[in-house]
Amino acid sequence: MFCVKLSCEVWLVILGALVAVLLRACTTLHPYSGAGSPPMYGDYEAQRHWMEITTNLRPLEWYKNTTDNDLMYWGLDYPPLTAYHMYLTGKIGSFLNENWTKLHESRGFEGESHKIFMRYTVLAADIVMYIPALIFYFHAMGGQSPDPKTRPLSPSLATILGLLYPGIILIDHGHFQYNCISLGLLVLATSCLLLDMNLTAAIFFTSALNYKQMELYHALPFFMYMLSSCVPKPGQSLTSSLIKLAQIAITVMAVFAILWAPFNRDFFAVLRRLFPLDRGVFEDKVSNFWCVFNIFYKLKLKFGNYEMMRICLFATVSMVFPSSVDLFLRPSRKKFVLSLINSSLAFFLFSYQVHEKSILLVGVPVVLYFPQKPFVCFWFLCISVFSMLPLLYKDGLIIATIALMLFYVISFRVSIEHFYRSSLNASDGLAEYYRSLLHVLLDIEYKQATQIDILKLTYKQIVKNKETLKNLAFHVVLVTSLIGCLVLSFALLVFEPPERYPDLFPLLISAYSALHFFGFFLYFNVKQLQIPQEFDAIKNVKIKSS
């Protein structure tokens, strides 16, 4: 009988993956974007309509406004790889039931069997792409930490907590989208890059960019890191570096050429669909700088879309500049994920045409950084879900949100307690200070000590347990922050806003979340800049003797 012995860590990951799939399946039972809301419905209908268009029209008509393709009704506005994916799923759907994708006649179709089919297409994409990509990343990276003084969370626990992140579950399997594909490709590209497989990384990231143009949020770190790897090191020839650069460039261009081949005559028409400037600087109440600033200074009344686009471009480039230049001038594998966080967060906070759901583009890199700073990353991921609460509330996903967040918080608490149990010691830190303080107080009672002795003892313990007190202060701030989230959530769900300010609670949630994101942006930038340059590549170079 064939038997394979697996370690406890492997069984833990398998169990975590099964639980993650179960939670995704349970979330599909809840409402989706635009359910029963004609005439435009929501993102569910958008994906279905794209299947209708791609399976019934020629590729040349997919991005054009025609009598058969009304671009005002959920016109295709994602790159070609999304269109090919919609074509494939649409063909499968039309094989099962041709009414699901009949041209014109299938608009707003919401049959029960079709809902199951649509939900399962997302679940299949998640199981095939995102879940394996995340498992592979944490397995490949192991327990590496950029700070030798810190003890990173184990890969198995980091994998489980990454798979349980409520943000991507709620948006893909509740609201209804296919973010798991582009984000899965991003994770695979990151894994390959950190394993020095630059060409494979280029293929995966270019594919991600051709699935969703929002992957531009992550483009600068990939560009800067790959470009820095092509700069000649001591002992390396300029020719070998140029060949390496040419290989990467040819790989990227080849992927673009293959995916865009059917649209070479309509290249600019497709680009106009991918980057529609007439939609404005932000949609709904997104938790970024422009939405908060708009409360006090009405941007849409002061600037046109093209003016605002240029302002956003300047602001975004300025904010992402320090992180990108640092990655190029002082390249290190240990700072690459941080650079992904900083770049995507800069784009989210300052770029043009940002959606609430775009915070997932920051959330997934934070998931990858989870082993290094679990408490900070947990805090960020909670705020990221909270920032989408008005959208989730509109979609009827509040019960799913509460359930998934509770499960995530409990899972995090259990994982952290399990992993760090051995390092906790009640005789250290504050407990020791309180015992010493009690002795001094007793000495004062018997006239053997003075108030000055208490001050000396307190100062001594603060210096000795500086890290303990710093951690205590951090946890107080974290808990206070999450309590604020609960209060605002309660207000949104229970109270009616004043008639004069119907968007009061969504705006408060956006401003509160944006304030946190500014703080996280500063924190992650500082963490990246503190990591020194990596000299492993230079150490391995053989210098020719003269």
TrEMBL record:
GO terms for molecular function: dolichyl pyrophosphate Man9GlcNAc2 alpha-1,3-glucosyltransferase activity. Pfam families: Alg6_Alg8. Keywords: Endoplasmic reticulum, Glycosyltransferase, Membrane, Transferase, Transmembrane, Transmembrane helix. GO terms for biological process: dolichol-linked oligosaccharide biosynthetic process. Pathway: Protein modification; protein glycosylation. Its main location: endoplasmic reticulum. It is found in: Endoplasmic reticulum membrane. It is a multi-pass membrane protein. It comes from the Eukaryota. Coiled coil: none annotated. InterPro entries: Glyco_trans_ALG6/ALG8 (IPR004856). The chain crosses the membrane at residues 117-140, 152-171, 183-204, 245-263, 308-329, 366-389, 396-416, 472-495, 504-524. One of its GO terms (cellular component) is endoplasmic reticulum membrane. Signal peptide: none annotated. Its EC number is 2.4.1.-. Belongs to the ALG6/ALG8 glucosyltransferase family. This is Alpha-1,3-glucosyltransferase. It comes from Tribolium castaneum.
